[in-house]
Amino acid sequence: MYLATVHNINHTEDCVLSLPDMAGSLVCSTIPVYVYHTTRQSKSSRYSDRDFQVTMHQFFPGVFFNFETVRIAGMVFSGGAELAECLDAVGAIKDNDPESWHSAWAQQAQKAEALAEEARNSGNKIAAKNALLRASNYTRASYYMLPGDGPSAAIPLFDENTVRPLQIEYEGHKLPGYLYLPPSWRRLPGRKIPVIVCNSGADGLSEEIYFFAPATAVELGYAAVTYEGPGQGLTLHREGLQFRPDWEVVAGAVFDHLESINAEEPELGLDLDRVAIWGTSLGGYFALRAAAGDERFKACVAIDPVHDFWDFATTQIPKPVLASWERGWISDSVIDTVVGITTRFVFQMKWNINLSSIIFGIARPSQIMKAMKAYTLRLPGETAC
């Protein structure tokens, strides 16, 4: 098993993750930052710790809207956005105003769809595909702050029929997903195609994940799979399936489906002896659970993974209050009341609670946080540092 984990990626200029024996190449993630240098020199060394400082441009005063804007702008490299379109949207958004966020990104989606139609009419297949992919991503983004359209229109515009919608068997349900195949000229001569299974997290969609990993993976000769498991995307909203901590069961169903595809279509040349699983944030937790619980996965890439959901969720609760609650000195109702009051003034907490209540199928904040205790990578008896 090859394992690569990356933490605090927002403060990294270049992060290269090597998967030995996967395809003889690298899986890369590069986060752009602005760097400036001061000329102050210390006595003990040529440069002091303050000589090099790294900072990122802030689109909004608040952390939440700024982070989600950077998330979208970070997809420029893989075709999920264009910088000019992002800046145009930012100019129309008010910080912590979900309605202005929705309107601005919906407008960009409409503009991108119009560009796609123009490109189709002129016979420019590549420009049409790229514009439709951006329109899909902007539509997803437009609804993100509210408590889209998928890229299905772009699928026929990919080269050589390299995108296949999937319906993955899972405990009597169907998990929607996509299989992305590298075009013939990107495949390694004389070798089968290694595969990367890409997890979404708490708030992503399989279509969005395309811009994070598969878009680059197919250019490097990999096949890639995206899908939506319990508590995610269509599986949540159509099937009503909530999250589960033992994600190795879900990822195992995805692997089973790959085996079925390989048996029915051996000419695809999928190499199921070289399958990696990938995820970021909570998707990183899912990837690590899958890799630990299913030995068929031979490599794991976990980018800034959630190690313990309870610790992550309670970071903004004062430690004395948290300790008193865990000891039973403060009731669940008090926690519910405090969180309820806070959500009236802090939009991000309101958004977090609304999302969590949907993906866990639980209404009360206190019970949501207790449910999060099951999502941990700690061994039995291991305590927080």
Automatic annotation (TrEMBL):
The entry's keywords: Hydrolase
Pathway: Mycotoxin biosynthesis
Record Gene3D superfamilies: acylaminoacyl peptidase, alpha/beta hydrolase
Stretches assigned to the Peptidase S9 prolyl oligopeptidase catalytic domain: 270-317
A biological process from GO: proteolysis
A single GO molecular function term of this UniProt record: serine-type peptidase activity
Stored SUPFAM superfamilies: alpha/beta-Hydrolases
Superkingdom assignment: Eukaryota
Pfam families assigned: Peptidase_S9 (PF00326)
Hydrolase listed as a keyword: yes
InterPro entries given in the database record: AB_hydrolase_fold, FrsA_esterase, Peptidase_S9_cat
Name assigned to this protein: Peptidase S9 prolyl oligopeptidase catalytic domain-containing protein
Species: Parascedosporium putredinis
